[in-house]
Amino acid sequence: MIIISGQVLRPQDIANWQTEESLVPYINELLNSPVQFDYGSIAELMFEVRLRRHIVEAARELHGSGVKFATFAKTYGNTAYWRVTPEGALELKYRIPASKAIRDIIENGAFYAFECATAIVVIYYLAVLKTIGEERFNRRFRDITLYDWHYEHLPIYTETGRHFLRGDCLYFKNPDFNPAKAQWRGENVIVMGNDQYFAHGLGILTAEQIIQRLNSLRKKNAMQPAYLLNQATRLDAPALYQIMH
């Protein structure tokens, strides 16, 4: 459900909109969702729609970039742009344009390896860059740390529910994971649409395939299979819109 300035948006209200064809599935998902999405203007709504499309694009680009999966202890990155901390974080070097450093991850993926939660943050930053452009991105994000769920500069929220949209981040939990491979205690994924999910380290797979892969990484005599949590993590597009405008 879409609410704009207190009014419910109906399908007939957008029938005559001159909308890019690639954005239509995202608008329709928001319209048909039981989750309520509130906006102050049509511009805010379109900002969210473009942001979601860019999240899916960024996930696909990261998948094809050659970036490896690694535990925090084995994280590495292009030292021309990033400093690797003892904890396994990638810190943007002083006076390096954030846009250039984020794009380098996609362009020179062989120089990078990191964990799946870090991958989601990379995807979010890349999507925001695509949405707002280099100038505003560099002005807003002068220092960036890529590490686990560190997103100090991004408005992100998680809410309970079972209705998911393209661009959402979900989590597959693996309660009986093998302690020797603790990195597979679960997997953060991006919803790509049509039962496809980007899971860093696994690929673009269906929900069933991800569960099967996680089940193969459980401890001996495991009893509980992996499962999808009933929650979604989202970039707060209206809040981000207000910050950027």
From TrEMBL:
Main function: Probably plays a role in the assembly of the spore coat proteins by catalyzing epsilon-(gamma-glutamyl)lysine cross-links.
GO BP of this protein: sporulation resulting in formation of a cellular spore
Name of this protein: Protein-glutamine gamma-glutamyltransferase
Keyword presence, Transferase: yes
MF terms in GO: protein-glutamine gamma-glutamyltransferase activity
Family membership noted in the UniProt record: Belongs to the bacillus TGase family.
Native organism: Bacillus velezensis (strain DSM 23117 / BGSC 10A6 / LMG 26770 / FZB42)
Keywords from the named record: Acyltransferase, Membrane, Sporulation, Transferase, Transmembrane, Transmembrane helix
InterPro entries registered for this protein in UniProt: Gln_gamma-glutamylTfrase_bac
Keyword Membrane belongs to the record: yes
Entry superkingdom: Bacteria
Spans through the membrane: 110-132
Enzyme Commission number(s) from the entry: 2.3.2.13
Catalysis performed (reactions): L-glutaminyl-[protein] + L-lysyl-[protein] = [protein]-L-lysyl-N(6)-5-L-glutamyl-[protein] + NH4(+)
Coiled coil: none
Gene name of the encoded protein: tgl
